[in-house]
Design a protein that fits this description.
14% strand; alpha/beta; globular; disordered N terminus; 15 strands; four-stranded mixed beta sheet
Length: 437
C-alpha cells in the first residue's frame, strides 16, 4: 500500500448536493448534462452528507477547513439541509475552524436565506455576466422563458410578470446587501460579453462588487451515445469549438481593457482574481486560481451520490476516482491516479511552453483547455489530447496567445507593484506612477 503524503497546500473537494440539477438552463453550462451520468441519486442523502463531512475534515492537514457548495444550483436544497450541514460540521470538527462558501445563480435567494448566511458568516458567490442584455443571452430561465428572443435589442420587459434570470439575480443581490451578507461576483466570459469589457466592469462596480472572478468559457462539442455533447479530455475524435466559447484574441482584449481601467483607478479597492493571481506569480507566491498553478489535483468534486472526480471540469467516467462509501477522500486525493493527474499539468507541457518567458505566470493554463496542436494554434477543428491527459507534449492551451498578450501588457505594472511589495509599500502606489499618467 503506498505511503500517503499530504499536499503542501490545502485539499479541497467541492460538494454538489443536488448534482447538476438547476432552476436555470444556461446555454454554456458545462455541468447540466452530467445528469445523464446518473439515472437517479441527484440529491445528496443524509448518510452521504455525514460521511463526506467526516472524511473531508479528517483529510485536512491544516486547522482551517473550507467547504464549498456548488451545483447545479445548491439553493435547490432547503435551508434545513444547510442547517444540518452545520450540525454535522460541529459534530465532526475535532478542533478545526470551519468556513462555508456557496456558489449560486442568485435567483432563489430570499430574506430567510440571506439571514441564514449572515448569521452563520457564509460567503456567497453570485454568477452574473454583466448588464441585462449580456447576462440574459446565455443565462436562461426554463420554459416558458426559454423561448425568449436572443437578440440584444429585444430583452424581456422589466415589467413582465415572468422575470428574466437577470432580474431575479439582481433581486437576490439586493437581498444580500439588505442583510449584510458578504458576496462576490463570478462572470463567465463568453463570445458575447467579451466584446464589452468596460460595460461589464462598470456594471460590477456600480453594484458595489469589490471581489470579481472572470472565467473564460471554452468548450468543445462531440456528441456521445448517451446524449452528452461536451468532449471529454480523453477523446481522440475531432471536436468543434462551441459557438458561445470566447475566441482567441477576444479574451486578451477583454482582460487588458479591464486591467487598464483597474490599474489607474481601483487598485486596492476592487479585487479581481486574475490580476491578484498574476501579481502573486510575479512575486513568486501561489496563485489564487488553480489554472495558473504549476500543478493541479488538489481540488476535486463530489457528486450527490458520493462519487469523487479529479476536478469539477473533469466529471467524465474516466476521471472518477471512487466513491466515499467504498473509498476514503484521503486515499483518493493522495492516491497515485490523482497524483499523476495533478503532475501531468507540468510534465505534459510542450516545448513551446517550456521555453516561454511567461511560463512562470501561466504554467500552461487549465489542462482541460490544452487541445491545440503546438504547431497550429488556431485550427477550426481540433484534435483533443490523448487518453493519458496530454502526457505527450504536443498541445497548447486554446487561449495561449491571449495569456501571452495579457502578461506582456501588464508586465511593466506588475514589475512596479512587485517592487512596492518588496519595499513594504502598497501596490496601489502604481496609480500615482508615471505608468498611469
Amino acid at each position: 500500500m503506498p505511503i500517503l503524503a499530504p499536499f503542501s497546500r490545502p485539499l479541497y473537494v467541492m460538494a454538489k448536493p443536488v448534482g447538476s440539477l438547476c432552476n436555470l438552463q444556461c446555454e454554456y453550462c458545462y455541468y447540466l448534462e452530467k445528469k445523464l451520468l446518473y439515472a437517479s441519486n441527484h440529491i445528496m442523502d443524509d448518510r452521504t452528507l455525514e460521511e463526506f463531512i467526516r472524511q473531508y475534515i479528517e483529510a485536512q492537514t491544516l486547522p482551517q477547513v473550507l467547504f464549498t457548495w456548488h451545483g447545479g444550483e445548491p439553493l435547490m436544497r432547503p435551508p434545513s439541509f444547510y442547517k444540518r450541514v452545520m450540525e454535522l460540521q460541529r459534530k465532526h470538527a475535532r478542533g478545526h475552524h470551519i468556513d462555508n462558501c456557496l456558489q449560486t445563480n442568485g435567483t432563489l435567494l430570499t430574506d430567510d436565506w440571506c439571514e441564514f448566511f449572515r448569521t452563520n458568516n457564509w460567503l456567497i458567490g453570485i454568477s452574473i455576466d454583466g448588464p441585462q442584455e449580456l447576462h440574459d443571452r446565455y443565462r436562461r430561465t426554463p420554459s416558458p422563458l426559454s423561448s425568449l428572443p436572443t437578440s440584444l435589442s429585444s430583452p424581456p420587459s422589466p415589467h413582465s410578470p415572468l422575470l428574466s434570470s437577470f432580474q431575479k439575480v439582481m433581486r437576490g443581490i439586493r437581498l444580500l446587501k439588505k442583510h449584510g451578507v458578504e458576496w462576490n461576483a463570478m462572470g463567465v466570459v463568453n463570445v458575447l460579453n467579451a466584446d464589452h469589457p468596460l460595460d461589464v466592469y462598470h456594471f460590477y462596480k456600480e453594484n458595489g462588487c469589490q471581489y470579481i472572478q472572470f472565467t473564460p468559457v471554452v468548450e468543445r462539442l462531440l456528441p456521445h451515445p448517451d446524449g452528452r455533447h461536451l468532449a471529454s479530455p480523453t477523446s481522440t475524435a475531432a471536436a468543434t469549438i462551441a459557438p458561445y466559447s470566447v475566441r482567441p484574441g477576444q479574451y486578451a482584449r477583454f482582460c487588458c481593457a479591464i486591467f487598464d481601467e483597474w490599474v489607474r483607478h481601483d487598485v486596492g479597492r476592487v479585487f479581481i482574481q486574475l490580476f491578484d493571481s498574476t501579481l502573486a506569480r510575479w512575486v513568486g507566491a501561489e496563485a489564487g486560481v488553480c489554472s495558473m498553478g504549476e500543478t493541479c489535483g488538489h481540488a476535486a468534486v463530489i457528486e450527490a451520490n458520493g462519487d469523487v472526480y479529479s476536478c469539477d471540469h473533469f466529471v467524465f467516467p474516466e476521471y472518477r476516482l471512487g466513491n466515499i462509501h467504498t473509498d476514503t477522500i484521503t486515499s483518493m486525493m493522495y492516491g497515485e491516479r490523482q497524483r499523476l493527474f495533478g503532475q501531468a499539468k507540468r510534465t505534459a507541457l510542450p516545448h513551446q511552453c517550456q521555453t516561454c518567458q511567461w511560463l512562470f505566470a501561466c504554467n500552461g493554463g487549465c489542462p482541460k483547455d490544452r487541445f491545440v496542436p503546438a504547431d497550429n494554434p488556431q485550427p477550426s477543428t481540433l484534435n483533443p489530447q490523448p487518453s493519458t491527459l496530454n502526457t505527450q507534449p504536443s498541445t497548447l492551451n486554446y487561449l495561449c496567445q491571449d495569456y501571452r498578450q495579457f502578461f506582456a501588457h501588464v508586465a511593466p505594472y506588475m514589475d512596479f507593484m512587485k517592487q512596492e511589495l518588496l519595499h513594504q509599500r502598497p501596490p496601489a502606489n502604481v496609480m500615482n506612477s508615471s505608468l498611469c499618467k
